Amino acid sequence: MATKHEQILEYIETLPVGEKISVRRIAKDLQVSEGTAYRAIKEAETQRLVSTIERVGTIRIERKKKENIERLTYAEIVNIVDGQVLGGKAGLHKSLTKFVIGAMQLEDMMRYTEAGNLLIVGNRFKAHEYALQAGAAVLVTGGFDASDTVKRLADEYELPVISTSYDTFTVATMINRAIYDQLIKKEILLIEDILIPFENTHLLYEKDPISRYRELNKETTHGGFPVIDDSSKLVGIITSRDVIGHSDEETIEKVMTKDPITVSLQTSVAAAGHRMIWEGIDLLPVSDDHGKLKGVISRQDVLKAIQTAQRQPQQGETIDDIIKSQLRIPQADKLTLEFKVTPQMTNAYGSVSYGAYTTILVEAATAALKTKNRRESALENMTIYYLNPVQLDSTLHIKPLILHISRKSAKVDVEVLSDHKIVGKALLTFQLLDR
Q1: Which CATH code for domain 66-187?
Q2: Which of 123, 149, 299, 347 is most deeply packed, by most CB within 10 A?
Q3: pLDDT, tens digit, for every residue of 21-31?
Q4: At the topology level of CATH, where does 319-432 sit?
Q5: In what helix (H) or strand (E) does residue 60 lie, and over which residues does it extend?
Q6: Whole-angstrom distance, CA of residue 316 vs CA of residue 324
Q7: In this model, does residue 386 exceed pLDDT 90?
Q8: List of E strands, 103-262
Q9: pLDDT digit string (tens) for 111-160?
């Protein structure tokens, strides 16, 4: 039987897109406490079923597909520009296809404004009116209000009219930055992207005998399985090590590992992979906030996903991507890397920032390891034991030296030079990932 929390989530999913939701209403409709309703609404926000907007409230939104994540909703625009909704609240859940800056004559402006657009403009009331009639929402800059006619049209067409105190250029920059951030988010692999779902997961029940484990082990050749109770709650995990020396008649609950390490659907694949390496585990159960099993991931799934992602073209560049793109390999020495300190890589004093510096060190050491060992590696520890300030426009030469490499780990010493003088030294320890 579904819990009250699950019933609320199911109820929210049935609500029409654009419907306003409140803790009090949920509590009253489903006869639950306001605390239970509040926690379920927060979970719905995590699952991207609802969105909470200041001065508007919480509304049901359409769950975004990952491939369309770069398309913002009007509700997100309100949050980005710290705006106030003047009219058309019922259309906040809709997505915009592009934004148009109204910095031209009215007739010319309307040639560029289509349905699904967002017109960014100041206090030009006729432009507001024409945009709504064309099927576009309106963002009024400079803190100006809209006319009563425009507000009435916004409600009638269910197209938001939003007011913000920022100027047009600032608003356009903020929205552009948000779209860029969404592109980066799109590229980050989450557990939900590679999960083996619950219905396809080989699992055992706590009351099953050990003989059932051995049957499943023989049938699937898998070494470990999650263990659940009758309500599908994760209670443990069982591996071949746990059953050694135990008879077939004993129950699984007596030999399983209780309170296993778990991750959520929103955990990144990279974070899960590192956790599996540090803990030395090959199977990781995925559960929700209430401990219900959602599925599992294996170490092979994680490695395959990371390797596939590395081969995909990037659409939104992070600082790490920018640093990596600026690393060069001089012809003379294929192990040495060259890097020029650009303005965005510096701190307030004009020296290379600590973050950029550490990224350079890790990239150089990782590149050196790949020449000796084709396996993936994960940084375990880094000790920087000498660092001189490196000024803007300096050219750095980064020289990694592998001190030790074994089946499971490696140590790399990295030397950083500028104008043939040593400006930095570091020792990095890596864990090597088994395929």
Answers
A1: 3.40.1390.20
A2: 299
A3: 888 888 888 88
A4: Thiol Ester Dehydrase; Chain A (3.10.129)
A5: strand 57-60
A6: 14
A7: no
A8: 117-121, 137-140, 161-163, 196-197, 204-205, 224-228, 234-239, 257-258
A9: 888 898 999 999 899 999 999 999 999 999 999 999 999 999 999 999 99
